[in-house]
Design goal:
By secondary structure, the protein is an alpha+beta fold. 21% of the residues lie in helices and 30% in strands. The strands form 4 sheets. The protein has an 11-stranded antiparallel sheet with strand order 3-4-7-8-9-10-11-12-13-14-15. Strand 12 and strand 13 form a beta hairpin.
């Protein structure tokens, strides 16, 4: 104990002697210069934009440099998840693509239903890297929702039992690694939830002659019933179209199938399809970011006007300020040129609602979860 006390006393005495030897005024050798403060370049005129972008940063011991930060422009794409948008600037050439019917996927509840419908069992192996890439595709889902969709009850799972159906009435083929692959026709791949023994989702894939995917549909099921159908495809103009199919809306007289899209610049495409009497009649309209509504020329005019009305291009009675129930070309003008506030607010509400629907959709992108070329 005495030795320990002795060592402590020596340390205290040394510290006291150092303090007694110090001068009365102590000069600080440090400095408080903020290397990340917004400092001026003194030799040139400056603007507020310069001040916002210029920073002084520490580059080496005792050295600093004034730098100008070049930040990317703000993302003009609408919504939280830009992977759902058709990439690129706005183009005027779009093909009218008919809405999908969820009834086409009804009756596929269980393994027994799939076997009766002509599906065959196959085993798919997904690497960790592939699963991560699929998760990136469905980035709108939380990690837990994605694991639930893929039934990843065990993170080490790599083997997946899937069911595949190739229609028999086809005559176009391509060769891949010595195997014949049907092209220009739908190939269905179904995935069963192994715990519930109910169908989880179906992806429908279509190839062209070069075995490029030209159409992929992702159909989500809930308790064995088709709930939502989302599609990634290329139209005849080469545009990548990411489409959320929302089913039947409207009055009893106009119970049409509907589908929604959103482009990079915020433009909305609404498509209405009528499947009555064994025929498919479709029409579509665009709602530009400015509020202008444009009818797609290649579709049915009546259906295109119905879609335009859903986007806000409907007439307003100037006396009663009530909606007329009919399409009006005067209502297709930009919001800045429209004197009716109720119509501009309606277009804004439509735009916001469509963004939410598209953001919440499981848009697959032109890449399947389970590659049919490895299953055929």
């Amino acid at each position: 104990m005495s030795t320990a006390v002795s060592e402590i006393d020596k340390s205290i005495n040394l510290a006291e002697s150092i303090l007694e030897a110090l001068p009365d005024e102590i000069m600080s050798v440090g400095h408080n210069f903020n290397y990340f403060s917004r400092q001026a370049r003194p030799n040139r005129a400056r603007t507020e934009a310069d001040e916002a972008n210029e920073q002084v940063i520490f580059t080496d011991f005792g050295q600093a440099r004034s730098v100008e930060l070049k930040l990317p422009p703000p993302d003009a794409r609408a919504g939280t998840f830009p992977q759902h948008n058709t990439p690129g600037a706005f183009r005027k050439d779009f093909e009218t693509i008919s809405s999908l019917r969820l009834t086409d996927y009804e009756g596929l509840h269980t393994v027994e239903c799939l076997e009766k419908a002509g599906f065959k069992l196959q085993r798919a192996i997904l690497t960790r890297k592939h699963i991560d890439r699929v998760a990136h595709q469905f980035a709108n889902l939380s990690p837990r929702c994605f694991r639930d969709m893929m039934c990843l009850f065990d993170d080490s799972k790599r083997d997946f039992e899937v069911w595949i159906k190739i229609p028999q009435d086809h005559d176009q083929w391509a060769v891949h690694e010595g195997k014949r692959v049907p092209v220009a026709i739908d190939i269905d791949i179904a995935y069963i939830n192994p715990r519930l023994d109910l169908i989880q989702f179906i992806q429908t894939v279509q190839y062209d002659q070069d075995l490029n995917i030209i159409d992929l549909r992702h159909v989500v099921f809930e308790v064995g019933l088709p709930l939502v159908a989302n599609q990634s495809c290329f139209d005849k103009f080469g545009n990548l179209r990411n489409i959320a199919h929302v089913g039947v809306t409207g009055s009893k007289e106009n119970s049409f199938e509907n589908s929604l899209e959103r482009l990079d610049d915020g433009t909305v495409i609404w498509t209405s399809s009528d499947f009555k009497d064994g025929k498919t009649v479709s029409g579509a309209a665009l709602l530009r970011h400015s509020g202008e509504v444009v009818l797609l020329a290649d579709g049915d005019r009546r259906m295109a006007e119905f879609s335009a009305r859903n986007l806000g291009a409907e007439g307003i009675n100037p006396k009663t300020l009530a909606w007329t129930g009919r399409y009006a070309a005067s209502a297709a003008k930009a919001e800045a040129d429209d004197k009716y506030v109720v119509r501009t607010e309606y277009k804004q509400a439509v735009r916001s609602q469509v963004y939410q629907i598209v953001d919440g959709a499981c848009i697959p992108g032109p890449e399947p979860i389970f590659n049919p070329l490895r299953l055929i």
